[in-house]
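Hi team,

As requested, here is the filled-out complex form for the N-carbamoyl-L-aspartate run. I kept the field names the same as last time so the parser does not choke. Let me know if anything looks off before we queue the next batch.

— J.
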Amino acid sequence: MTAHVPAELPPFGPGRHLLSVQQFDRESLHRLFDLADLVRPIAQRKSICTVLDGAVLGSLFFEPSTRTRLSFESAFLRLGGEVTTTTGFTFSSMAKGESIADTSRVVSGYSDALVVRHPDEGSVAEFAAASVVPVINAGDGAGEHPSQALLDFYTLRSELERRDKAVDGCTIAIVGDLKYGRTVHSLMKLLSLAEGVTFRMFSPPSLELPPEIAQYARARGHRVFDTDSVPDALTGADVVYATRVQRERMTEEVLANANVSGNLVNRQILAEAGASEIIIMHPLPRDSRLDSFDLSSDVDQLPGLSIFRQTDNGVLIRMAIFLTALGCSPDAVKATTKQRPWDATLRWP
Ligand code: NCD
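And here is what came back:
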């Protein structure tokens, strides 16, 4: 393992928590991606797998989520496991003052793995410290969101390959709320495992990238440029990664300073920058309200739109995460996979 992993966070593997993308190196990243490729037919319901027969996932989401929670749960179910779930504080014993440590120890006794999302940075690591089973970080405040970064890297790699390019040497424009958007923090750290990436950043005032994230990428040989506008950020870029303004994480004052309105990225902005063919990524959800300063839906017919390939790939990546944490080899997956006996209308390409 490389110096990317701090002493207190061991490489991700069997029986291990997944708290940060820093638990991967290039080799383990590609191993995970190979597992994701292996389970694609299972995710697409072409075959059925029971490798996690008898396993129970505890899914604890203390912050709003649709795709992350459902895709983690769907991933576990597709591998033959079962899922128990709780959402929000109101219906959990935390509303009665229970500590993270107590909740975690109790629920981990009911489960074989936990997936946790929580509004406070560092809180999922607290869950992990008290858990007797692997804990997967599904987002801790403005901190990290490792499974999202993994599916973003995986999707970016395949989108670039379709254009005879690679993540090594690519140029990525990352635009929007770079301060509170945890997906950006995790993605930049994970992309730092590639070679010679150029990052072109644009954010409104008060929503700038934390300097330590830029420093992290630069220290690993990548170039990070701040730009003054979205068209400027798009110069020479292979991909634009747009993010939502994380209004729920900021004060009214910060929001007023950011002074955001209109669209962050739309057809016209892309056309002006000569980037109508660019790969378009976004972790979703897209804020579709008027003046939300997000990715406009008027880009939806453009050829580079990859946002729904990201969400589809999220299931494969999360299946690979569970297989790794629960120590299931590719051979174990193959031995427990069969053709589906029932018919379904397959929606996947
Ligand atoms: C992101 C998150 O929760 O950090 N959503 C997601 O998990 N795909 C991004 C966001 O909420 O803007």
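Two things worth flagging: Residues 50 and 80 are 4 Å apart (CA to CA). The domain at 21-145+312-339 is CATH 3.40.50.1370 (Rossmann fold).

Thanks,
J.
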